[in-house]
Amino acid sequence: MTDADSQEPPDEDSFAERLDFLCTNDPRGPFTNPQVVRMLGELGMPAPSSTYIWQLRTGRSDNPTKKTMDALADLFGVPRDYWASDTTTAAVNAMIVRLNGLKATGATPEQLHQQLRNFTKRMGQGVNPETMVEQLETLARLSEAGVTAATLERLKDSRVTNIAMRAVGLSDQGLNAAAAIIEQVRQLEGLPAAEPPAPAGT
Questions:
Q1: pLDDT at residue 158 is higher than 50
Q2: H, E, C per residue of the chain
């Protein structure tokens, strides 16, 4: 047995655990170590060896440089303080889990990754991450009422986000009523009709 094999597994909140979470749960992934290295290179970022990425993911190397940490944060579209701030890590991980849950609505991996980047940008502007997690939860509820993946793109408009936030707590009947009203406005503005929401329980 080598010294590396005898090492204890990384702590739950270690850099290794956080990096492995991103590699495994990125909406575009999961990614192997060679894929991470390749993507870093394609983006013109510092690209260590796949062996080094493996060492970082397993905790066998636990002292990455700031340049490496910043490059990995930028690659995955998370804030650069993701590695050091427990609050940021918890919020971002919750966003990623909820974004992955939207794949069932037809959202593409790239759309979901771009939305994560948008959230990261807004966090840098001082927006409360809990608010954005609530938006994702609302979006999940709306998708159950028949809202398509296009809603994800519309979240870029703060007015639409406010409308979505007002739907928090509505019953299935209330969501269907709100969707019907929005559909009427769409027709008045000459927009194509959206597909009708699926009946609750289907």
A1: yes
A2: CCCCCCCCCCCCCCHHHHHHHHHHHCCCCCCCHHHHHHHHHHCCCCCCCHHHHHHHHHCCCCCCCHHHHHHHHHHHCCCHHHHCCHHHHHHHHHHHHHHHHHHHHCCCHHHHHHHHHHHHHHHHCCCCHHHHHHHHHHHHHHHHCCCCCHHHHHCCCHHHHHHHHHCCCCCHHHHHHHHHHHHHHHHHCCCCCCCCCCCCCC
